[in-house]
Amino acid sequence: MFQERLFRPNVAARLRDLLHVGIREELAAIQCEDRGRAFHVFLMLNDQHRHLSNHFEDIDLHRLELQLPFFR
């Protein structure tokens, strides 16, 4: 969230909708008949990536490799 009063009303409105628009666009870009599978792919590409990206960025420092068969 952000403080809307810090922005001009037109900018605040665009920022308010930015997250929802981005999620809708990304879900629409996933080509899959099963909507549940598409949402799973969305989570794997976004949520799981966010949680694990720091681990893989510093893998040379802690020298611990996780076995994650479905993470890309």
Average of per-residue pLDDT values: 83
Shape: flat
Sheet having the most strands: none
The CA-CA distance between the termini, in Å, is 29 Å
SS class: mainly alpha
Give me the strand/helix succession: HHHH
How helix-rich are the residues, as a percent range?
A: 55-70%
DSSP strand count: 0
Q: What is the helix tally?
A: 4
Unreliable runs: none
**Rg computed from alpha carbons, rounded to a whole number of angstroms:** 17 Å
Report the sheet-strand fraction: under 5%
Key structural traits:
single chain; 72 residues; mainly alpha; 4 helices
Secondary structure: elements and pairs:
Elements: H1 9-29, H2 35-45, H3 47-57, H4 59-62
How would you explain this protein's 3D organization?
- This protein has 72 residues and is an all-alpha fold.
- 65% of the residues lie in helices and 0% in strands.
- The chain has helices spanning 9-29, 35-45, 47-57, 59-62.
- Helix 2 packs parallel to helix 3 (47-57).
- The two termini are 29 Å apart.
- The mean pLDDT is 83.
Provide a brief overview of the structure.
This protein is mainly alpha-helical and 72 residues long. The chain has helices at residues 9-29, 35-45, 47-57, 59-62.
